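sorry to bug you again but im stuck and you know this stuff better than me. what follows is a protein written twice so to speak, once as letters and once as structure tokens for the fold. mainly i need to know what kind of three dimensional shape the backbone takes. anything you notice is useful, everything is just below:
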Amino acid sequence: MTASSHKKMFKQLKNKPEKLKKYKKFNAPKKRTTGINLRPCKLCGRIGGNIQAYGLNICRQCFRENAKKLGFKKYR
């Protein structure tokens, strides 16, 4: 089960309020304040390989695809 799908169990546990309360307490993802998971790519949502320079916050793959549109050019 991924961190974004912890709500899938709510349907099964809706008739058992005590178990649902305990499930939410221990299985809901915590709010991130630091780390790699804090800034996903604006375009595709990838977590790794982000370019934060110039306030871009996009991954390197999306940067390669959209560099010309963003106003960057190759110097080679």
